Amino acid sequence: MAMTLRLTEEDNARLDELATAEGRSKQEVLRLALVDRWARLHKQEQLDEVLGRVLPRYRGLLDELGPV
Amino acid sequence: MAMTLRLTEEDNARLDELATAEGRSKQEVLRLALVDRWARLHKQEQLDEVLGRVLPRYRGLLDELGPV
């Protein structure tokens, strides 16, 4: 899959800086940035799912403890 | 600045998923992923700089405290 990515001068400078700092190509930096963002989305979804399952179970206890 | 970004099928699917989940264009998702990665690089550099400046000042105290 190829797509044309349009970057502002500022964002292109950031990409250059990252590529230099990481010793990676701009392609690879963008790929890793994408994979990171995708992994964070899934971590957030998993956390939401676990909290949605666990919090109701402890609601009574949490209510007894009162506000922090 | 325009560049051609080549993505594997898997990475392209991740990008599609992010765009849908965030309600943003693929261009915008990539831009935000890039800016996030750049911000993290700078936070890490700032942390390294502060630790490099602060830790030596407390070396004597840390040595007295001994290993954790």
Automatic annotation (TrEMBL), chains A, B:
InterPro entries: CopG (IPR002145), Ribbon_hlx_hlx (IPR010985). Transmembrane segments: none annotated. It holds the Pfam family RHH_1. SUPFAM superfamilies: Ribbon-helix-helix. Residues 4-34 form the Ribbon-helix-helix protein CopG domain. GO terms for biological process: regulation of DNA-templated transcription. This is Ribbon-helix-helix CopG family protein. It comes from Actinokineospora cianjurensis.
